[in-house]
């Protein structure tokens, strides 16, 4: 399955921007620009968490903003601003990222910074 959405304005949800979001099972691509085009990709297995926010104007216009928290060094937060079908796309991203991690046999690891002296205190 693949979703292609455009960034929209909060006023009536009109697609007046040159930013396009393409989401499929393997990666999320953000293409922006008119004369100079920038394309950012993030593999689904790197997406760790997803947040959906909707302001009052976004709810009236039927749009939402999805924030993807990734393990990517260049883009730790990917924002899909003002898109239609935001709750459906959020669920798709969550399921696709989980399935992609399962296929690659990767685990989400937390880096807990513990001092060695704190570990010795716990052994006592």
Properties at a glance:
124 residues, alpha+beta, PH-domain like, three-stranded antiparallel β-sheet, globular
Spans of at least 5 consecutive residues whose pLDDT stays below 50 are: none
Strand content: 25-35%
State the CATH architecture: Roll
Helix/sheet category: alpha+beta
Distance between the termini: 54 Å
The CATH superfamily name is Pleckstrin-homology domain (PH domain)/Phosphotyrosine-binding domain (PTB)
Percent of residues in helices comes to 25-40%
Taken in chain order, the helices and strands follow as: EEEEEHEEHH
CATH class: Mainly Beta
Largest sheet: 4 strands, antiparallel
Order of strands across the widest beta sheet?
Answer: 1-2-3-4
- What is CATH's topology name? PH-domain like
Number of strands: 7
Oligomer: single chain
- Rg, nearest Å: 18 Å
Number of domains: 1
Q: Give the count of helical stretches.
A: 3
* Overall pLDDT metric: 86
Question: Care to describe what's here?
Answer:
With about 120 residues, this protein is an alpha+beta fold. The protein has a single domain, classed as Pleckstrin-homology domain (PH domain)/Phosphotyrosine-binding domain (PTB) (PH-domain like, Roll). The chain has a four-stranded antiparallel beta sheet with strand order 1-2-3-4, covered by helices on one side. Strands 5-6-7 form a three-stranded antiparallel beta sheet. The termini are far apart. It has helices spanning about 55-60, 85-105, 115-124, and strands at about 5, 20-25, 25-30, 40-45, 45-55, 65-70, 75-85. The model has no long low-confidence stretch (mean pLDDT about 85). Helix content is about 25%, strand content about 35%. Pfam families: bPH_2 (PF03703). InterPro entries: YdbS-like_PH.
